[in-house]
Amino acid sequence: MAVGQLLALIGVWVAAIASPGPDVVQIARLGVKSRAAGVACAVGIMIGNTGWIAASLLGLSALIQAVPEILAVLQLVGGAYLLWMGIGAVRAGFAARKTTTSDDVAPAAALPTSKALRIGIATNLSNPKAVLFFGAVFAQFVKPGMGWEWMLVILLTLVVIGFAWFVGFALLVDKVSGFLDRYGHVVDVVTGLIFVALALWMIVEGASGLLPG
């Protein structure tokens, strides 16, 4: 891999993680509740991303290119889990709305950082953007025989950039948490609806990939 290709990969990576998607939305949703929950979710998301990067460098991207049905299975599994999370977020939003209606000063329920971490990991592993990015786009930059040195450089570079972006975003959300906390139930419902829509799309795409043409 040449330096120019690495810079191109970094550019694609930054564009991928900075664009709105389930990872960013989930950080915003949990960051509204507390800074610790938002940061823990961001760390969880990057743990998931680190797994995707490592697996892709070790051959996952090439395997998906050779056997497209693997991508379809990942879309079905990820879509099913994203649908479950989406429905849960909508239900939590409506439940929080009832609580807020009965007591306007009731604070948002504290979310344990361990749970926020697990939610972050699960969100990323089921994220359709991650599935498609590492299943298709990333494969264009990973070539056989590139050497472990380049693989290590790619891994460390993308992980550092990812941690800086997601944790930084979590801290930024905290700056406006006072305003957002009052409308946290709205964030939950909107997040849930976005997740449900993405999940249905993933399930349809996955099913289409497995069905005979």
Largest sheet: none
Low-confidence stretches: 102-107
What percentage of residues falls in helices of 4 or more residues?
over 70%
What gross morphology would you assign?
globular
Arithmetic mean of pLDDT = 80
Briefly note the structural class of the backbone. Answer: mainly alpha
SSE string: HHHHHHHHHH
Count of DSSP-assigned helices: 10
Describe this protein's structure.
This protein has 213 residues and is mainly alpha-helical. Helices cover 83% and strands 0% of the residues. The protein is built from ten helices and no strands. The chain has helices spanning 3-18, 22-33, 35-57, 60-66, 69-102, 113-125, 128-137, 148-175, 177-182, 184-210. It starts with a helix and ends with a helix.
List the helices and strands and how they pair.
Elements: H1 3-18, H2 22-33, H3 35-57, H4 60-66, H5 69-102, H6 113-125, H7 128-137, H8 148-175, H9 177-182, H10 184-210
Compact overview of the structure:
Helix content is about 85%, strand content about 0%. With about 210 residues, the protein is mainly alpha-helical.
Question: What would the keywords be for this entry?
Answer:
213 residues; mainly alpha; 10 helices; 83% helix; 0% strand
